[in-house]
Specification:
This is SLC26A/SulP transporter domain-containing protein. The protein is an alpha/beta fold and about 675 residues long. It contains 24 helices and nine strands. Helix 8 runs antiparallel to helix 17, helix 10 packs antiparallel against helix 11 and helix 20 runs antiparallel to helix 21. The chain starts with 7 loop residues before the first strand and ends in a 16-residue tail after the last strand.
């Protein structure tokens, strides 16, 4: 079992400091099997986010019967464990409060009851907290997944949705078990920067949904407005089917009156100030939780006392419910038979849910890795998320994926262990079963203020200077002493950042990442294709006299693949070349079928002109490709057998000759 990561202070890209300890342990370690070897922090016991190695007490453990508490009575042991893990538990409580309104909105978007999304929030959070690959990362019901469920719920009903979520979980577990998390390396840094910037803007813009007037019809006009052609992602984040992230400012939304808006603005500013500045006074209490509680006190101690009110959570939807049971035993559902016909109806939705969930989970994991200077397990995260979705389907929840907004909030509050994620899940369950009368009284504008702070910490502000410098001509950068040509990147990279941000704002987070990867791949292919060079020079044939006929040699350097085959073909002067031509590939890599066909094409052109062409000095990596594609080479081209250390020489002789011969030769 790998030891937990060494602890220490880390700084996020936005300058937020937090403690990182034991952040990559597997689920078994979180349950009490870990044997951490970190050095004792210098600031123990004043720092609440550490552990006492002398007594063997480690913070962030899910169990409360660990080493170091032996000999204590159960109540004393539990209280000591609570004191040790106060920071992790309070961070989890903060996250669960922020999840409540968005879980309701996601449910309505998908066309299911709010309790279906609320149950998904705690089930996904608990399963990924225990079995996922990134301690401290939060999962729950998300709009990223809800938006692809709409059609299935409308056409087949919620029962088919539960089967779709179960199948999605199986797909994700299989993907993780097969090592599919390694595909994350295909996402370049400009895509990550564009993703974060776009996400931050979407989070901020979507908060204005809370300033719309709440309906008083049976279902709640506000609830319907959230679900009408729109989606909310990671803390009221809007991913709209029409209007994009700007949907709060379009359509027929009615805004609150000036007085109510002023009180809501007061709550927002209060929450932001407390969240930002409380850590300068004390870190003993999560600033985000204090940012939620302070406006709540203001709302009921001041605003309501002077005859005014603002929107609270119960105005969106009550969060009351009961503990779920398997859907086959729930009288509210009439589950269809699990057979091929049913799978045929749900498999498309299942694949979309699985792919979107894994993509957003991998992106969030990369962000948290950078923030905490640690490394999570991508494949394990796929498995943990798959377990969560499967259990969600079994117990009548809508499933989901990682919520990047709440994950950043948790890490920002110091919640870097599995306990913080599991604590958030369990407190969500407590809210549903018992604490809902209190939670229903929290102003939504308090959550808006906290999410504005998360928005600020999400955006990569340093990228603004890089993008600005990259857009300026070199002459302007050199003439202005305040600018530096060294703080820039290729304009193609800057373009990728901008296009990912734009797609995120107007379409979808997952679509934005796919578009960014595709555009980056096209740019890379184009640039790589332009690096291929072909040098031509004339020599005399070896061993021939002074009157021997000249021979042309082409030396190819770079990568020969689909994007460079046309420049490769255009570099030859078949009609002007003498009867004997050599093409050397000792500095060239042959990559694909297009390259094989390009060699066939050059060979055929010289054959048509009754000239002899030899292809030689092919690199070892290219030999294997050509050997596998031997049947694809034209009849006049073949690959000679070769021994260890020998170079391939494939010759295409004059058709007038007696067939053609291949020979082996050593490197010159």
């Amino acid at each position: 079992m790998a030891p937990a990561s060494a602890g220490g202070e880390a700084t996020s890209p936005s300058g937020v400091e937090f403690t990182t300890l034991a952040t990559t342990e597997p689920a078994s370690a979180a349950l009490g099997e870990s044997d951490s070897k970190e050095a004792k922090p210098a600031d123990w016991p004043d720092n609440p986010n550490t552990h006492d190695l002398e007594s063997g007490r480690e913070y962030g453990r899910v169990d409360c019967c660990m080493k170091g508490f032996e000999g204590m009575s159960p109540p004393h042991r539990f209280l000591s464990w609570m004191k040790l893990n106060k920071g992790q538990l309070l961070s989890g409580i903060t996250v669960s409060l922020a999840q409540v309104p968005e879980a309701v909105a996601f449910s309505l978007l998908a066309g299911v009851k709010p309790i279906v999304g609320l149950h998904a929030a705690w089930i996904m959070g608990l399963m990924t907290g225990l079995f996922g690959g990134r301690p401290g990362m939060i999962a729950g019901a998300t709009g990223a997944v809800a938006v692809v469920m709409i059609g299935l719920v409308e056409d087949e009903g919620v029962e088919h949705l539960f089967y779709a979520v179960m199948l999605a979980g199986v797909i994700q577990m299989t993907f993780g078990a097969l090592g599919g998390g390694a595909l994350m390396r295909m996402i370049p840094h400009p895509v990550m920067v564009g993703f974060l910037n776009g996400l931050g803007l979407v989070i901020g813009l979507a908060q204005f949904n809370s300033f719309h007037v709440q309906g008083d019809d049976e279902d709640g006009g506000h609830r319907r407005s959230l679900a009408k052609g729109s989606e909310v992602v990671d803390g009221f984040v809007g991913r709209r089917l029409s209007g994009g992230a700007f949907a709060p400012f379009t359509g027929d939304h009615e805004w609150v009156d000036g007085t109510t808006g002023a009180w809501m603005a007061l709550h927002v500013i209060t929450a932001m100030c407390v969240t930002l500045f409380l850590p300068r006074l004390t870190k003993a209490f999560p600033s985000a939780l204090a940012g939620i509680l302070t406006p709540t006190i203001v709302e009921w101690a001041l605003v309501r006392q002077v005859g005014h009110s603002t929107t609270v959570i119960e105005d969106v939807s009550s969060v009351a419910g009961s503990f779920p049971i398997p859907v086959w035993f729930d009288d509210d559902y009439n589950m269809p038979t699990f057979n091929g016909t049913m799978i045929g109806k749900v498999w498309v939705t299942s694949v979309l849910v699985a792919c979107i969930g894994m993509l957003e989970a991998q992106m969030t994991l990369s962000v948290i890795d950078d923030m905490t200077a640690t490394k999570g397990n991508r494949n394990q995260e796929c498995i943990g998320q798959g377990v969560g979705n499967f259990v969600c389907g079994v117990f009548g929840a809508m499933g989901g994926c990682t919520t990047i907004g709440q994950s950043i909030m948790n890490i920002h509050n110091g919640g870097t262990t599995r306990l913080s994620a599991c604590g958030a899940a369990m407190f969500m369950l407590i809210i549903i079963l018992a604490a809902y009368p209190i939670i229903n009284k929290i102003p939504t504008s308090a959550l808006v203020g906290v999410m504005f702070v998360i928005c600020y910490h999400t955006i990569e502000w340093s990228s603004a200077k890089v993008l600005f410098n990259s857009a300026l001509p070199l002459k302007w950068r050199n003439n202005d002493s305040k600018l530096t040509s060294e703080a820039k990147v290729n304009r193609s990279d800057a373009f990728v950042v901008v296009i990912v941000m734009a797609v995120t704002l107007y379409m979808d987070l997952a679509v934005a990442v796919v578009v960014g990867v595709v555009v980056s791949s096209l740019i890379f292919s184009w640039n790589s294709g332009n690096t291929l060079t072909v040098d031509r020079y004339v020599v005399k044939e070896e061993g021939a006299g002074d009157d021997a006929e000249a021979m042309v040699v082409y030396e190819v350097s770079g990568s020969l693949f689909f994007a460079s085959t046309q420049p490769f073909l255009d570099s030859f002067s078949e009609r002007d070349d003498p009867k004997h031509v050599k093409v050397k590939f000792d500095n060239c890599d042959i990559y694909d079928w297009s390259a094989i066909e390009a060699i066939n094409g050059i060979n055929q052109k010289y054959l048509d002109l009754e000239k002899k062409c030899e292809f030689e000095k092919i690199k070892l990596s290219s030999r294997k490709i050509m050997a596998k594609a031997k049947a694809l080479l034209k009849d006049q081209v073949s690959i000679a057998t070769f021994g260890e250390g020998e170079e391939i020489v494939a010759t295409a002789p004059n058709k007038i000759g007696s067939g053609w011969a291949s020979r082996d030769s050593k490197s010159d």
